[in-house]
Input
Amino acid sequence: MKKVDFLIVGTQKSATSALFTQLAKHPKIEMSRQKELHFFDTDIYFKHKKPDYEKYHSYFSDKEKLWGEATPIYAYWEEAPKRIYEYNKKIKLIFILRDPIERAFSQWNMEKNRDTEHLSFSQALREEEQRVKEALPEQHRVYSYKDRGLYSLQIRRLLRFFSKEQILFLCYEDLKNYPILTLNKVTDFLQIEVFESLKFDTVFQTAYKSQLLYSDFLYLKKYFYNDVQEVQHLLGWKCSSWLKRKKNFKVLFYRDYRAYTGGHQVVYDYFSFFKEHPLFEVFIYFSKESCIDATNPWYNDMESRVEVYEPWEYDVLFIAGEDWKMLEDGIENYKTVINLIQGIRHTFPQTKLYKYLQKKAYKIAVSNEVANALCETQKVLSPIVTIENGIDLSNIEAQKEFEVYILGVKNVPLARELAEYFDTKNISFEVTYTKKSLQSIHTLMAKAKISVLLPFHAEGFYLPALEAMQYTDLVVVPDCIGNRTFCKNDFNVIMPPEYDFESLVVAIEKAFCVLNDNERLEEMQKNMTATYRSYSKEKQKKLFYDFLEKNII
Output
């Protein structure tokens, strides 16, 4: 009885169709009338002691040629090697191996196009073990993205029945990049003459609708690492290139930008840090209500803006404030989430933010005070990293035009009270009641001799205090949680004993006295300079990059 002479047994998504098509052109070969007969992986054919091989042979007609068939699941299907051996002990096998990471992604794209897969690649990988249980005691034909790429087990299973001389192991990358040389290996293996003329066709290649995320690459690299080492040992190959592929992380920000705030500015700083890093591509989605004007820190970065918020398509999600509401519940179990926490109010049970503390994410606290408050809630189960905010150390050249500048956006009633007081005392001043751009605020600070700052008490890190030290002669600022690390009374700022009108007036009068005491003024300005220079954005960026290196990259 004439039998099939050789089989292409694997692996799926490794150019088996291209090889099948090419071999069918050889005058000494007859490939089956259709690819993938699925004979040896169909259990029902083997329920009886003697399978119906005549049905299998009906796909061939010319007994003078070599018969060949290609079903790339054979190497993966546990029972197939034994069945093939019992059919033809002298059969030859061709097994094409592909980078298991690329193979898994290619299979997922195929299933996605077939509409048999509804999960993202990230989800499908991490839920595979649970999903494939549906097919037990058999293997799963659709969702086995990772399992099919564990080649060493498949190789050992084949070698249990066939000698190494009966199996030709090919590398997908060789078939793709050196088709003539690789096809000559095939004809030599089958002991037939080489192709007289050769035009190797790649078939069934379709463009992917999405890119392999770097985080998924890293996840699979770890998953396949030991198996790749075993494959190298079994075949004597060098497969290290499978584990060295480089792709950038894709990072997604979200902002609901209605007006300029210092909080938006800090988020933009982290956006800029990502943008400057060579291993990251950064994107931002704005809510439909967002204001896109010159006050928006992203105004000159609109090439990074995306029109659709699709967090599953990114490696890293950077969120702050109430951005959690934009994320699907549970996505943090599959994606890397970085949660910037800028205020103590996150730790107040009555706020909307409090419920997010238990969410899985790297928590970046802008000060030790914020980090300590987070720890004290005993709600945060994720790592907390303290990275203090920094300022731009560039100078603003401006003449002093008035005596006092009041930054009153966060306490308008008290700012108005101080403005009325200065009017009665004929003290020249400027006051800010509404949100303005950072550049505008810095310029007003630079034009004033004294800056009076009115923060919230629960500030996480009160950056204007450092900025005022940089641009103005003296700073008056009440105590708040977020400035205790760097604001020291009578050292680099003047702090009123209480946060009220009378105490502030006393502190401002004290500041005017210091302005007239050159020795004391010089000493305080020296301390102010040393303080703000120790909080540079470069330092902040370095600490953030160290965090990325340790936890993300």
